[in-house]
Design goal:
The chain is an alpha+beta fold. The chain contains 6 helices and 5 strands, in the order αβββββααααα.
């Protein structure tokens, strides 16, 4: 092969090598750019802001707060907690004559009042036969307490049914049994009164009829 031709071939090969090297460098640069942009996007900026949740309750609404029973939302106010502005429900609990605060973003702890259908189903649970486990009272008491504080109306009805002794004064009932029964009974009474829109006396008659109890006669 003549020398001139050899030189031309060498030059072409060198050009190709340079081009491939340039392409590789360009690819690396684009990859680095993409990585940088993705890194910038995933950068987390801490902002002092309360997590939001869709509002479902408004002032004058009645709600059930499992640990305290039936309450009414008086207003929605803003409180500063740890340097953060937090919107809260101001709740009045009629039974304890107490006021409570609950951040709006924690409103999953609340539930609306039962529907008429749920009230009727609860009454049918009260009419059922008690289901008492053959376990130690301390363990059963713990289960009853968990049911009361669950906020679930059917579980509340089960506690009232299982601890109901009717009007049989001969049946032994411990102080803690009576306490748990009265706590669950009062929760149902206060909720059903609002749902049924009747007096406390009429609501009590309805519950006692389902439980086959005689409502206490008013003092003359």
């Amino acid at each position: 092969m003549p020398k001139k031709r050899k030189k031309k071939v060498k030059k072409k090969v060198k050009k190709k090598i340079k081009k491939t090297k340039l392409k590789k460098i360009q690819k690396k640069e684009t990859v680095l750019k993409l990585q940088k942009s993705s890194d910038q996007k995933t950068e987390i900026v801490k902002i002092k802001k309360q997590a939001t949740e869709k509002k479902i309750f408004k002032p004058k609404d009645y709600i059930v707060y499992p640990k305290h029973g039936v309450g009414q939302i008086l207003s929605v106010s803003t409180k500063t907690i740890g340097g953060i502005d937090v919107q809260c429900y101001d709740i009045k609990f009629e039974k304890d004559k107490a006021l409570g605060l609950l951040p709006i973003n924690k409103q999953s702890h609340l539930r609306p009042l039962s529907t008429i259908n749920q009230v009727n189903k609860s009454l049918s649970i009260l009419k059922g036969k008690p289901k008492i486990k053959r376990t130690m009272w301390s363990r059963r008491a713990q289960e009853y307490d968990q049911k009361i504080n669950s906020g679930k109306i059917y579980e509340l009805a089960e506690v009232v049914r299982d601890l109901n002794k009717g009007n049989d004064t001969l049946v032994d009932q411990s102080y803690s049994e009576r306490q748990l029964f009265e706590k669950a009974y009062e929760r149902m009474l206060s909720e059903f009164k609002i749902v049924l829109n009747v007096t406390i006396e009429d609501t009590q008659k309805k519950l006692d009829k389902a439980l086959n109890r005689t409502s206490p006669q008013p003092a003359i």
